[in-house]
């Protein structure tokens, strides 16, 4: 049994992508535009300081029933999390109503991105909605309003000329130096090569994580990466990286899913998202049968 839903409006937000949007909303002002045919339903809404906003997560990814969250390392059931990737991609937020002007509501505390469709609005009634005795399950052991912070430590020691050694606990030493382009020699790992490799490796490991989440397998993975650095104004900077993974799979049945996952890996790669450099992903999926 099913029923089509009707959108009553659209959200105008300073957040343009999922990466821009903060978890659970911040203090930025968003506007909710209610379609004219539903404007009459806003009568008397100004009397409420806070509202429940129900909206449709229109760019949500495929859901999994076991979810890893930002708050700890253990997977939890989808319905025991706030993951945006759901069976029915519906979200709800409690927002502060700042102003109503005809069919436009200005609100604070909404984490939706630009263009998100609105499903419904209800007034927040503290005597009904606030539950001071509510238990918060596995989150009771976590500082869940403060996401995990990871630290990655390295040590660099100069040895001679333009060469050195890079170390990190429990890892083999890496001999490093300037590239030939900047007066070094070609046999050492340069920071430029390490930068390109960092994004290349991050995309691969993110892809492997997504494969595991989706219970998919591949036969092999190999990629070539090329970074281009050039003068921009007064500085040499990386302007573009090309990553070309070649992925072998058993047959074509999973080809489209594998293709989508490697593209998603490129979008989710933490290292590339931390860089201003454009990353061009050019995957090739090959079935060996």
TrEMBL record:
A Pfam family this chain is assigned to: OsmC
InterPro entries listed in its UniProt record: KH_dom-like_a/b, OsmC/Ohr_fam, OsmC/Ohrsf, TrmO-like_N, YaeB-like, YaeB-like_sf, YaeB_N_sf
Record keywords: S-adenosyl-L-methionine
Boundaries of every TsaA-like domain copy: 5-133
Family stated for the protein in its record: Belongs to the tRNA methyltransferase O family.
Protein name, per record: TsaA-like domain-containing protein
């Amino acid at each position: 049994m099913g029923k089509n839903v009707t959108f009553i409006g659209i959200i105008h937000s300073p957040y343009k992508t999922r990466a821009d949007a903060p978890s659970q909303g911040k203090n930025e002002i968003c506007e909710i535009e209610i379609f004219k045919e539903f404007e009459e339903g806003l009568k008397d809404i100004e009397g409420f300081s806070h509202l429940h906003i129900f909206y449709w997560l229109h760019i949500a990814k495929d859901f999994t029933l076991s979810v890893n969250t930002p708050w700890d390392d253990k997977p939890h059931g989808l319905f025991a999390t706030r993951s945006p990737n759901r069976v029915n991609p519906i979200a709800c937020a409690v927002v502060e109503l700042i102003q109503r002007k005809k069919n436009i509501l200005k609100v604070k505390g909404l984490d939706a991105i630009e263009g998100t469709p609105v499903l419904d609005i209800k007034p927040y009634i503290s005597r009904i909605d606030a539950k001071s005795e509510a238990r918060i399950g596995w989150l009771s052991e976590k500082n869940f309003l403060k996401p995990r912070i990871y630290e990655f430590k390295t040590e660099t020691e100069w040895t001679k000329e333009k060469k050195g050694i890079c170390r990190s606990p429990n890892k083999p030493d890496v001999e490093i130096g300037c590239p030939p382009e900047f007066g070094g020699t070609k046999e050492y790992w340069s920071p430029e090569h390490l930068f390109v490799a960092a994004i290349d490796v991050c995309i691969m490991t993110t892809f492997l994580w997504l494969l595991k989440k989706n219970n998919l397998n591949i036969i092999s993975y190999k990629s070539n990466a090329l970074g281009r650095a050039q003068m921009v104004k007064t500085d040499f900077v990386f302007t573009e990286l090309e990553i070309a993974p070649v992925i072998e799979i058993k047959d074509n049945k999973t080809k489209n899913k594998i293709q989508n996952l490697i593209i998603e890996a490129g979008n989710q790669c933490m290292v590339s998202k931390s860089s201003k450099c454009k990353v061009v992903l050019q995957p090739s999926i090959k079935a060996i049968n």
